[in-house]
Amino acid sequence: MSALDSGMSKTLHNGLQILELLVEHPHGLTLTEIAEGVGVHRTVAHRLVRTLEAHELCRRDRFKRISLGAGLVRLADPVEQDLRTLARPVLEELADLRQATAHLVVREDEDRARMLMVVEPRRARMHVAFRPGQVDPIGRGSAGLAMLAAAPPVPGEREEITVARRRGFAVSHGEIAAAITGVSAVVPGARTQTVIGLSLFEAPDVEELGALVVEAAHRLASLLH
Question: Which residue, of 52, 68, 84, is where some domain finishes?
């Protein structure tokens, strides 16, 4: 976290520190953990979190854990434009290589993933069509499963998540749309958790497809840094 100097607002600095702390802990923190992480009294942390909640920059789940809020999506829109610009040639190459629809998905919040970008193959006789902007539960579809697999194991998690963690990519069948297979991998080091992948009618060799999406995810990561 950045250091405070005499020309800065301490209150704003502490509020931004909370957001930075929550970026590092996508599954949320308690109010006490936030106070300790920022180095302020719990009462001060409570006021700061309430202010951030009012602007939808953070949110509390049913267990009172605090995580980043959907308001950050509006603030991040110009950044997402840059992400789309960098991702387009990677997605186009991936889509044309496999004659399948390539997708770029970002984490919306704790429970949802958002389809940020869809690139369709230019010469395929048939391909999967998705609407950019659609939001799906994070526990459904290869993109969300890849995001969950990037976190440490949790008791009772789906076997597909455990397998995805071992493989380095996630596979789903018919979870977002009937008869569609999805293969996705997380883009390493992206500021917002981001996934790149393919959606296909037929996937005879998921290991080959997995290697392709992992390579594409790493290529996008290199462009982002």
Answer: 68
Check if the beta carbon of residue 217 is closer than 8 Å to that of residue 185: yes
Domain residues for 41?
Answer: 10-68
Give the model's pLDDT for residue 42.
Answer: 95
CATH number of the domain bearing residue 124: 3.30.450.40
Q: Is the torsion defined by CA of 47, 53, 55, 57 positive or negative?
A: positive
* Structure-token pair, residue 144: 């969300």
50 part of a folded domain:
yes
> DSSP letters of 10-47?
HHHHHHHHHHHHHHH-TT-B-HHHHHHHHT--HHHHHH
Tens-place pLDDT, residues 65-121: 999 887 776 776 666 778 888 999 999 999 999 888 899 999 888 888 888 888 888
Whole-model pTM: value is 0.66
